[in-house]
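Weekly structure sync - notes
Attendees: PM, LS, DV (DV joined late)
Agenda: review two folding runs queued last week.

Item 1: First target. Sequence and structure tokens pasted below for the record.
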Amino acid sequence: MTTFKNAIMDLDANGYQLQGLLPFRATKRITFAGETDDAIGDKDGALASFPIFTVTGDVQVFIFGICKTSLVGAGTLEVGVVGNTASLLAQISDVTALDENMTYLDATPALAEGVAPVVHPIGGGLDIKGKTTGTDITAGVIDFFCFWRPLSDDGNLVAA
């Protein structure tokens, strides 16, 4: 938890100054197995909308994914919050375009893609979720990285 001592310096719960725009990092590996009922990637299952990061309070984030194993299935994938499911990472309309070592920063995955970080404020503890639609994503692995900073005294983010 962050303690705001004054307008010039933000401190973490241990009294250390927060360094940089997004001083914290959380990671989450997502494995898709959409052929299994209610697994991540099953577009009609309980995890069609799956948790990636749990948020409390208000935070700002920059998120991206790196594909570790090529995705299989012609489904769609997006990352956002409840009420705006593609707000953090735009929808990839056919995940077979997301191959091993490609970066998921936008709707068009690429190798070693460069980007200026787009920082998103998230208020009220809205969790970060992925969503699959169209057809099942039957296989593949993505490591999601979230660089973040608390904005409120109770702001926090952890892998779900």
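Item 2: Second target, run right after the first with the same settings.
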Amino acid sequence: MAMRESAALGAQRFLRDMAAGHLASLAAACSHVTIPAGQRMFDEGQTASRFWLIDAGQVTLDVFVPGDGRVVIETLGRGDLLGLSWLQPPYQWQFGAVATQRTEAFEFDAPAVRAACDKDPSLGYEVSRRLSAVIARRLQATRARLIESTARARLTG
């Protein structure tokens, strides 16, 4: 990744204030990609070999519900991290994802990032700490949606 692109990577909310050496390690496993609107990026059960930091555009996470088809779980946009399943075995997507708008993103090679984290435990700690914050925010948002859904069901039922 070129120096200018590396600086753009470092400006991403998820990586902001990361040490230069750690950022360089991640940049080595990264490329900037364009995903056309309507393209499925991954499906439940597939191998989670990549993850993305969304630079522009929009991606929805979905889950297949028998009888209902794909149900949207969350919509992600600029500054959001797409993909959490790449860090823990069995490295399989728990949801699906589709670009609902033309999306620009930094795409990371997950096995290369895991290897860099294994090689440099301080990088691994930093990535894990940042991922934990994303997971906590998503769990809180899911909790709020469940409470809202339950309240709506009581009003209509």
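Discussion on item 2: DSSP finds four helices and eight strands in the chain.
Action: LS to circulate a short write-up before next sync.
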